[in-house]
Amino acid sequence: MEFTAQIDALQVSRYEIDGNKGASIMALGEKLESENLAGKEVIKYACPYDLFSQLGASLPARLDCVMAISQAGGNKGKVVVKSAKLAVAQK
C-alpha cells in the first residue's frame, strides 16, 4: 500500500555491508507531551540507497515522499520511503 506524505527531513545516511546497500532518513515527528520527554519525536525511515546522493546536499528540508508500509521483524509493519523530492513551497 503506497501513499504520499510530507516529512521534515534532518539527515540522510547510507551504508554498504557485505554487498547489501541501504539508506535511512531521519525526520522530525510530532511534538511529544510527557512528563519525561520534551521536544519533537525523531523518526527513522528506511529509503533507497540512491536518495543519499539525490538529497544529501539539500538537507535539512521538507520533502514530498511516496511511502509504503512493509513488513518488519516480529510481524510488525514499518513505513518506508520509496522516493522523495524537495517540497514545492505553497504561495
Task: Itemize the secondary structure elements and their pairings.
Blueprint lengths: L1 E16 L2 E12 L8 E8 L3 H5 L5 E12 L3 E11 L5
How many strands appear in the DSSP assignment? 5
By CATH, the topology is: OB fold (Dihydrolipoamide Acetyltransferase, E2P)
Low-confidence stretches: none
Sheet with most strands = 5 strands, antiparallel
CATH class identity: Mainly Beta
Please give the radius of gyration in angstroms: 14 Å
How are the strands ordered across the major sheet?
A: 3-2-1-4-5
Shape: globular
CA-to-CA gap between the ends? 31 Å
- By CATH, the architecture is named Beta Barrel
Helix content: under 10%
Mean pLDDT: 91
Protein model, in words:
With 91 residues, the protein is mainly beta. The chain has a single domain, classed as OB fold (Dihydrolipoamide Acetyltransferase, E2P), CATH 2.40.50. The protein is built from 1 helix and 5 strands, in the order E-E-E-H-E-E. A 5-stranded antiparallel β-sheet has the order 3-2-1-4-5. The mean pLDDT is 91.
